[in-house]
Amino acid sequence: MTTSQTLLPNLERDVLTLLAQGYRDQEVAARLGLENAKQACYRVDRIKAHLGLEAATRPQLVDAAYTRGALPAPDPIQPLVLEAAQYHLVRMIAAGATIGEYAGKRKMTRSQANSVVRKTQGALEAATLPALIREAWRRQILGPTLFAADLQMHSQQEPEPGLGGHVIVPLASGHRLALPAWGLRPTRYLDVPDETEAQAAARFLSARDGYAQLRITPPEHQGGPFRVSWRRQEAMPSSGHSPVLGRSRNPPVYRGRSA
Predict the structure, then answer these.
(1) CATH code of 100's domain
(2) Domain count, the chain
């Protein structure tokens, strides 16, 4: 969801749209009939003033424009999970950090940071940093999707998020990120809107390594989400659980259906 609606004049909106698509100032000027690249830069300054972000970087402007509804957010496509360093780069760039600030925060040399930038741009097929933000929204690394929220939640739980072994779960309500039950936090879960989605998620995960003792827990209150959770592979089933066939007072174990 956008936090507010901010209107941009048509020309400023067109300039920012082209920058987000990876065009450079001279190309933007040529496409929009502006006199020269300086005119494109002037329009960028106008965009900053409209958004109240006079000190913002261009990638930050793109992210803010999508968030506030000043530009239509790109339609999401199949999500992508980046390496931890790349994920941190995207989020810092979206927040207005420079490459030098990213390097300092991550305790890298500038050369190492530039290498991460190149790899991230390659993974997202983005020619420029403003385009990197657009592609991160498309790939659901940034933005209001449930998948982006899953990524952010995991990055906050782990000091150095290692997303190895992840599974992207396709659901009617949107893609979700599931993490296997190994590591320091042995229990993972997904909250989904209804029991049909919970059953679908459990079926999708049931045959994959690291997703043992799948359980579906009914909502604690009416209208709340169903929780699909899993534990370590070696965990023993708890007594008193029944197969997932409708609601139960105890969290039901997902056993799947025999062929």
Answers:
(1) 1.10.10.10
(2) 3
Please compute, for residue 41, the number of CA atoms within 13 A of its CA located in the half-sphere on the CB side. 4
CATH number at residue 23: 1.10.10
Q: Is residue 3 part of a domain?
A: no
Is residue 1 a part of any domain in this protein?
no
Written as six digits, the tokens of 68 are 């506030």
Domain housing 22: 10-68
Report phi then psi at 19, rounded to 5. -60, -40
- Return the closest-CA partner of residue 142 out of 89, 71, 201, 70: 89
Closest CA to 59 of 145, 135, 124, 156: 135
Q: What is the pTM of this model?
A: 0.84
240 and 176 co-located in one domain:
yes
Per-residue pLDDT of the chain (259 residues; tens, 9 = 90+): 444 556 899 999 999 999 999 999 999 999 999 999 999 999 999 999 999 999 999 999 999 999 999 999 999 999 999 998 999 999 999 999 999 999 999 999 999 999 999 999 999 999 999 999 999 999 999 999 999 999 998 887 665 555 567 899 999 999 999 988 776 666 789 999 999 999 999 999 998 888 888 999 999 999 999 999 998 655 444 443 333 333 334 556 666 654 3
Please work out, in degrees rounded to the nearest 5, the angle formed at the alpha carbon of residue 197 by the alpha carbons of 72 and 141.
Answer: 35
Residues 114, 106: contact at Cβ < 8 Å? no
Same domain for 60 and 111? no
